[in-house]
Amino acid sequence: MNYLRLLSNFRIATDALLANKVRSALTALGIIFGVAAVIAMLAIGNGAQQEILDQIKLVGVNNVVIKPIVEQEEGKVDEKAGGADASQKPKRYSRGLDLEDARSILELIPTVEQVSPEVVFETDIIRSGLRRSSRIVGVEPAYFEIANLPLDEGSHFTTEQLAKGQGVCIIGAGIRKKFFTNEVALGNYIKVGSHWLKVVGILSETLVSEKAIENLGIRDFNMDVYAPIKTVLGRYINRSSVLVPKQEDESFFIDGVEVGGGDKDKGPINYHQLDRLVVQVEAPEAVAPTTEVILRMLTRRHNEVVDFEVTIPEQLLKQQQRTKDIFNMVLGAIAGISLLVGGIGIMNIMLASVLERTREIGTRRALGATRKDVVSQFMFEAMLISLSGGMVGVILGVSMAYFIEGITDIKTIVSPLSIVLSFGVSAAIGLIFGITPAKKAASQNPIESLRYE
Questions:
Q1: Dist CA 243 CA 261 (whole Å)
Q2: What are the tens digits of pLDDT across the range 113-122?
């Protein structure tokens, strides 16, 4: 019959809480806000982690990115002014980042798995009376594997198409939607700049957030046209084969686009053949030493001219993740403190309740209630407050997470684990902080309790 006694004690605890609804609700506020804060903070942390993982997939795993930079002039003031020392320091020549650099890295460094050189050319796409500014990207087959860009239709470039620089292309999903709305894109032609290219493949749609585009320099893959790199170098732009004009104010054009002229307002001329070079290393532990080897190799090949920069996107993203993890831990700790404060509030109110209900406790004991009955009654009260506060807190926390995502650009992910964790913590708080008041109530002498005024 123990379960009947427990059921009776539970009913008495429920009646006591309902008799003091306002006080019970105020006592539960600490638990409510604590649970809601924990769920919302964990949702923000999960969203940040997922965003980082998505960005790592976009830049590829174990990648080293090499970008060209125009050589910066350095020296003392008197050297720039044409002093005596200026003539003693001849300007070093570098042919810039080119395909030979890519071939050397792939052939000479054993830890390199594959290399993806890229040339990006801004142009217009025209078809069926529609025009749109876009980009044609000169790539090799390794590009699509490194960037995790699967094909939806068609095939990759053949060896002959790559070697001869034929007029073929692979288009993004956005280009197909824009220019091939009511017809089949595969096998058709599209005018990119002043050249017609045959569509041999269509990429699957890739979701890229604006934050990833801004932070990582990732292009919108859906709106690009991809062609063999020799096609772009031969038909559109090959800066390494253009002679630089002697006069600073002269300029020259490639495919109708001005690319030269050493105008001071426009900055130095970009003489690099490639716009980006992505090197994929075979193992994570080999990324750092391989980067050092690449730096030394390119510096030597470029005649000691540092006209390139080397970055490791995954390390930058992991560093960003660590920063966010620390931030989330701080927020989680603050939310945990609010739960602790809520538990202290429950204990405080229950102790006050024990003092107020001394005669009630004495009456129950006089009518045959045992110490266990009194303990279970007050434990039930504390548990009901914490559990009801936990349930309301869960609803509020989930709502807060979606509200934050709705009014800001912060991605939030509410996981079942965070709900179970926060609800379990609220139950544990009710159990832990309800023990002391319950024991205090049960330890009172029934006769003295009946005499209490």
A1: 11
A2: 999 999 998 9
**Distance of alpha carbon 290 from alpha carbon 64, whole angstroms:** 9
Domain spans of the chain? 2-54+319-451, 61-312
In DSSP terms, which residues pair with 346 in a beta bridge? none
Separation in Å, CA 333 to CA 28, 41, 55, 357, 398: 20, 10, 27, 36, 19
DSSP string, 203-228: EPP----HHHHHHH----GGGEEEEE
Cα separation, 389 vs 380, whole angstroms: 14
Condensed to tens digits (0 to 9), the pLDDT of residues 310-327 reads 887 666 556 666 666 676
- From the list 341, 339, 343, 348, the residue with the least C-alpha distance to 437 is 348
Distance CA 218, CA 287 (A): 21
46 φ, ψ (degrees, to nearest 5): -65, -40
DSSP 96-124: -S-HHHHHHHHHH-TTEEEEEEEEEEEEE
446 vs 10, 359, 367, 374, CA distance in Å? 21, 9, 10, 11
Q: Is the pTM of this model over 0.70?
A: no
Query: CA 71, CA 68: separation in Å to the nearest integer?
Result: 9
Tell me which DSSP letter residue 273 carries: S
414 vs 22, 121, 398, 441, CA distance in Å?
31, 42, 7, 40
Amino acid code (one letter) for 28: A
Dihedral sign for Cα atoms in the order 36, 41, 44, 46: negative
Query: Nearest-CA neighbor of 208 among 217, 200, 199, 197?
Result: 217
User: Which run of H or of E encompasses 133?
Assistant: strand 130-139
